[in-house]
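Appendix B. Raw example, untouched.
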Amino acid sequence: MGLVRGWTDKIASVLGASNPVAGPYFSFTVPEPTGVVAVLAPQASSLLGLVSVVAPVLAAGNTCVVVAGQNRPLPAITLSEVLATSDVPGGVVNTLTGRTAELAPWLAAHGDVNALDLTGAAAGQRTDLERAAAAR
């Protein structure tokens, strides 16, 4: 967690750039948040896996809709309760519970989702989810 926290103030300086141009002006590249990121939490590690996919999304300034691991969703729900009573604004982390195979296609094809993290997706489902996300 310390590694993610340490990168929050360095993202712009590491990923940004000053671009050389032939003219009387400056050109800068500055990374911006993507927006809403759908995250499929890993199934093998319930809490650590969830935090490892949600923390980078938040550190980059995005909001996320995370599908909790279907086999062990209790740590995700407990984390949601902690976030609801912390300094994280409402709606920044939204947790869904259910079967990942059923929820993932809806998130991949949703028009308001700007990015998709397929860490917790089944290997056979990844190609279909990538196609659904690219088709919208």
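End of appendix B.
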